[in-house]
TrEMBL record:
This is Diguanylate cyclase. Residues 193-269 form the PAS domain. It comes from the Bacteria. Pfam families: EAL, GGDEF, PAS_4. Residues 357-490 form the GGDEF domain. Signal peptide: none annotated. InterPro entries: Biofilm_reg_signaling (IPR052155), EAL_dom (IPR001633), EAL_sf (IPR035919), GGDEF_dom (IPR000160), Nucleotide_cyclase (IPR029787), PAS (IPR000014), PAS-assoc_C (IPR000700), PAS-like_dom_sf (IPR035965). Residues 272-324 form the PAC domain. Residues 499-749 form the EAL domain. PANTHER family: BIOFILM ARCHITECTURE MAINTENANCE PROTEIN MBAA (PTHR44757:SF2), DIGUANYLATE CYCLASE DGCP (PTHR44757).
Length: 761
């Protein structure tokens, strides 16, 4: 039995309690040199140290033996194991010591081999030397043959009976590990080569499998076992295939035997990067690429086949994620424009083959989304888009596809099948789903949607055509008042072409300065005097004559041309006001100019930056509630205008998104009541109350109030009775060219008074 390798305590510390018990050290805690008791103790210690050195020599021989060695109790329990056993078992000693040798993991529990080992161990425990040749299963699930010898150790009076087990691996009939001469050297070299190859197989990062010429598996390295969900369990080769399934690269189609890479290699095929999916029972699937071929002997005789498998699961997941990201919107996770186009193309091809399966395409745009984004910030805008995506998905059918096209635009492909009637029903559900208020930053916010609808047509031959027509119908819904669904009609395409042509002509008009300003008077209602004008742009079209803003402003807004056009209007109005201020009877007039929200977003220092304009005294800016935005550029512009004393008017008051909060947040000096509140007067009690409330509120905030759209004397009298001092409308005058406007003002002179003030520079 090899001595214990644990460190012993100091010998004196062990012996002293014993000597005290015998009365030999009583009163002698530190005996002087030469004391007999001290000498006896030192002699005993020297003897023990010699025994320890001898034990270490035998321990080294035990541990580094080329054989498997184990120490058993008489009943077969494992007491000690040498390094060879632990290395072969690939398990720590703690997991093996104490177990019966026939219960060890290298032979299946309850097998005939285990019974043979049990019988041999118990015979040796009874004092009989026993020899045994038995099969065992290596940790890599290979079958090996062991020659074992069970030797009972001489019984000592102070120790129980123990059994020494020595074992060797039988290889091709040769069992001796102690051959001499050249044969011994060759055997040792062969063993070293075998150990190196086994170590390489176990530590390589690819799975290696091999079989003999009969197709029996002979190699299944560590990585292969992990791939197939076998781990370190001692599973016999015959049971390996019960622990996993194999599939084609799609992960759905079972891999038949003729397609298994190792089988193909066994048939003589050179396999290169063949993908397959391994599905271990109860574990995640693995995708591998297998390469290999047949094994042949020196004379060409078939020996079997070998295949290496490289795990590409992580790569496949990354590729799948990249494909998903390329085809889906990052914010909402919905299909993007590219994926929608792919699906629509397949749907159109199917419709060409079978007109009995029509489809439809919807384009949706959120009404007033920009105002929500500006008022609450981009993060809240993203939350609105996420909630919108969820509502749209819930409202459509399972066979339909909701996609995000960008910004606040969405599209829906209605399929399987979908005619005009079904498409309208889906659109109604979408509209209803959007009527519920959105909860944003603790507030209930209502956002509607405009929907354009295009149904399948044999005339659609290109992918972009149904998308274009649905988009055209959506903008028709917006122009018709928003929050509605419009079905595309061929006439809309002609209108869209006309708008494109109008945009082109607008660009030419800006270069050639084809625009002019007309001025609508603003009246002091109690006195009937003209106090100023609102400047309104007109397009002097070379072929179509003088065009009002309704013919081109919407296109200018959508194309971004409103920025250079607005800059021109501002400069021209400033020039005209300075000219009038040079005449004594017109010096007290003001001129107001409508400002687009896009003009507030222009970066500082660019040619169309409105802050580069020199504002004369009396030049007012009209801003609608919906154009005010909390963007850095807009806030910069508003603060700069306030510092320069440029008077601001809030136009179309009551129709926008921010309502009275705009008058509180920005330096507004005048409210212009929208014509929709004035036209029902004087008979509508509700509208009368609204106008009276606005006038009262403005008086408390020290703001001027202008009533817009006055067309009758009764309306003028009604707003005057409600306390409104100023008004404009067709009752007084339509917009006039500059010369006619000046004549109008002279006929109703203001004098030196300036009721609106203003000290712009």
């Amino acid at each position: 039995m090899p001595p214990s390798s644990r460190a012993e305590p100091d010998l004196l510390a062990v012996l002293e309690p014993l000597l005290q018990a015998a009365g030999l050290t009583e009163g002698h805690r530190a005996a002087p040199d030469g004391d007999p008791r001290r000498n006896a103790v030192e002699a005993a210690q020297a003897a023990l140290m010699g025994a320890r050195r001898e034990r270490d020599v035998w321990r080294d021989a035990w541990q580094h033996s080329g054989e498997f060695r184990a120490l058993l109790s008489a009943d077969g329990a494992l007491l000690d194991l040498n390094t060879q056993v632990l290395r072969a078992a690939r398990q720590p000693a703690e997991r093996l010591l104490g177990r019966r040798v026939w219960e060890a993991p290298w032979w299946p529990s309850g097998s005939a081999e285990a019974q043979q080992v049990q019988q041999a161990a118990l015979q040796a425990g009874a004092g009989e030397i026993t020899r045994l040749t038995v099969r065992a299963v290596s940790p890599d699930a290979r079958l090996i043959t062991l020659d074992l010898k069970f030797t009972p150790l001489p019984r000592r009076a102070w120790a129980a009976q123990q059994v020494l087990v020595e074992g060797r691996v039988r290889r091709h009939g040769a069992v001796s590990l102690t051959s001499t001469g050249s044969d011994g050297e060759a055997l040792r070299e062969a063993n070293l080569t075998r150990v190196a190859l086994e170590s390489l197989l176990e530590n390589v990062q690819d799975g290696i499998v091999a079989c003999d010429s009969a197709g029996n598996l002979t190699v299944f390295n560590r990585v292969s076992r992990e791939m197939h969900g076998l781990g370190s369990a001692p599973v016999p080769p015959s049971e390996w295939s019960r622990h996993y399934d194999l599939y084609e690269p799609d992960g759905v189609t079972p891999l038949v035997q003729a397609r298994i890479p190792l089988f193909r290699a066994l048939q003589g095929e050179q396999v290169q990067d063949v993908e397959m999916v391994i599905a271990p029972r109860g574990l995640p699937r693995r995708t591998v690429r297998a390469s290999g071929g047949p094994l042949t002997g020196p004379d060409g005789e078939p020996l079997g086949a070998v295949v290496a498998m490289h795990d590409v699961t992580a790569q496949k997941h990354a590729e799948s994620r990249l494909r998903h990201d390329a085809l889906h919107d990052r914010l909402t996770g919905l299909p993007n424009r590219a994926l929608l186009a792919s699906l629509l193309e397949k749907t159109m091809r199917r419709f060409e083959r079978d007109p009995g399966h029509p489809y439809a395409v919807m384009f949706l745009d959120l009404d007033d989304f920009k105002n929500v984004n500006d008022a609450y910030g981009h993060l809240t805008g993203d939350r609105l888009l996420l909630e919108t995506a969820a509502r749209l998905k819930d409202a459509v059918r399972r066979t339909d596809t909701v996609a995000r096209m960008g910004g606040d635009e969405f599209a829906v492909l209605l399929d399987a099948p979908c005619d005009e009637l079904n498409a309208r029903r889906v659109a109604e559900r979408l509209q209803r789903s959007m009527l519920r208020p959105f909860r944003l930053q603790g507030q209930d916010v209502r956002v509607t949607t405009s929907i354009g609808l295009a149904v399948a047509s044999r005339g659609y031959t290109r992918l972009e055509e149904p998308l274009r027509d649905a988009d055209t119908a959506m903008y028709a819904a917006k122009r018709a008042g928003r929050n509605r669904t419009v079905l595309f009609e061929p006439s809309m395409h002609e209108q869209a072409l006309a708008r494109v042509d109008t945009e082109r002509q607008l660009r030419e008009a800006l270069r050639e300065e084809q625009f002019t300003l007309h001025y609508q008077p603003v009246m002091h209602l109690p006195s009937g005097r003209c106090v100023g004008f609102e400047a309104l742009v007109r397009w002097q079209h070379p072929q179509r004559g003088l065009l009002a803003p309704g013919a081109f402003l919407d296109i200018a807004e959508r194309s971004g041309l409103i920025v250079p056009l607005g800059a021109w209007v501002l400069r021209e109005a400033a020039r005209q006001l300075r000219e009038w201020q040079g005449e004594a009877d017109l010096a007290g007039l003001f001129v107001s100019v409508n400002l687009s929200g896009q003009q507030l977003q222009v970066p500082a220092g660019t040619p169309d930056d409105l802050l580069t304009v020199s504002f004369p005294d009396g030049l007012h800016l009209e801003i609608t509630e919906t154009s005010l935005a909390d963007t850095p550029e807009a806030l910069r512009a508003m603060r700069a205008l306030e510092r320069r004393g440029v008077p601001l008017m809030l136009d179309d008051f009551g129709t926008g998104f921010a309502s009275l909060s705009a008058a509180q947040r920005f330096p507004v000096g005048t409210l212009k009541i929208d014509r929709s509140f004035v036209s029902p007067l004087p008979g509508d009690a509700r509208q009368t109350a609204i106008v009276a409330s606005v006038v009262t509120l403005a008086r408390h905030m020290q703001l001027n109030v202008v009533a817009e759209g006055i067309e009758t004397a009764e309306q003028a009298q009604a707003v005057t009775d409600l306390g409104c001092t100023f008004g404009q409308g067709f009752l007084f005058s339509r917009p006039l060219p500059a010369a006619a406007a000046a004549a109008f003002a002279r006929s109703r002179p203001l004098g030196t008074a300036r009721p609106f003030g203003g000290t712009g520079t």
